[in-house]
Specification:
mainly alpha, 10 helices, about 0% strand
Length: about 260
């Protein structure tokens, strides 16, 4: 199974591809998580972006359960035309698709249960998706990842990330948390900015080389911390065993001769 850190790196690759497609005017909107390809760098890529081949105003044809799970409710019902909607509307719909893809990759399950794509689309309007934590309790420590997936799968578009930049920012926060949890030599607590997602720049997608650099950086931090601990212990020992200042007894007192 894919690790949370690898899944988040893959999701960041999807967001980067979505941004590239938006810049050249190619609508994506939704995809089938079961058909996602993984590149040699560990990123995810689309098998065949298909919405741009639809006629203007055409509804996406959903042929599998996994594809229906990654299609936002407003798009699946036809309330939103992904080929002509605003960038913000498309970004919110694609945030849903990214959340569903992460859900599928990390748990092997779909957020809702249904027998056919049609019934799944109906369930999206009538039921609340199970939290990723409910189906993958081993991810309990990955709080930022759980919050992100649940937020992306919100039924209301207004509750999802409003742009690709906002989505990438939240993915970066979750990826930093996952990096610390999966790195065996790192036990430093999260920064306040990581846990609260405050003013964080987008980071490069994390491949094997960048993970190795992060590991070496954390190892250097460990050695610095160990050195500081030994220095502190030495100072405590020296303070406890250093000879205390004493004054000699029976020191004659010199009295000044008065005229």
């Amino acid at each position: 199974s894919v690790s949370p850190l690898a899944a988040l790196a893959g999701a960041q690759g999807l967001v980067s591809a979505l941004v590239d497609c938006e810049e050249i005017g190619v609508p994506i909107g939704r995809w089938d998580p079961a058909l996602i390809h993984e590149t040699q760098e560990g990123l995810w890529s689309f098998p065949t972006p298909g919405l741009h081949a639809l006629p203007l105003g055409g509804r996406p044809l959903i042929v599998s359960l996994t594809e229906s799970a990654a299609c936002a409710p407003e798009a699946a019902t036809g309330a939103l035309d992904l080929s002509s909607c605003s960038p913000e509307q498309r970004a919110r719909a694609e945030s849903y698709s990214v959340g569903a893809t992460l859900y599928w990759a990390l748990s092997g399950q779909l957020p809702l249960q249904a027998d056919t794509p049609e019934y799944y689309c109906r369930a999206q309007l009538e039921s609340t998706p199970k939290s990723l934590l409910d189906v993958a309790p081993h991810l309990e420590r990955y709080a930022s990842l759980i919050r992100l997936v649940d937020r992306c799968l919100a039924r209301s578009p207004e509750e999802r990330p409003e742009s690709h930049a906002a989505l990438d920012q939240e993915l970066s926060v979750a990826a930093r948390e996952a990096d610390r949890l999966e790195n065996s030599v790192s036990f430093f607590p999260l920064r306040v900015s990581d846990s609260q997602g405050m003013d964080l720049p987008s980071r490069p997608h994390q491949g094997a080389e960048s993970r190795q650099l992060s590991t070496r950086h954390n190892q250097r931090q460990i050695w610095v911390l160990v050195a500081l601990i030994f220095l502190l212990l030495f100072l405590v020992y020296y303070q406890a065993h250093s000879p205390e200042g004493t004054f000699p007894e029976n020191v004659p007192v010199l009295e000044s001769d008065e005229p």
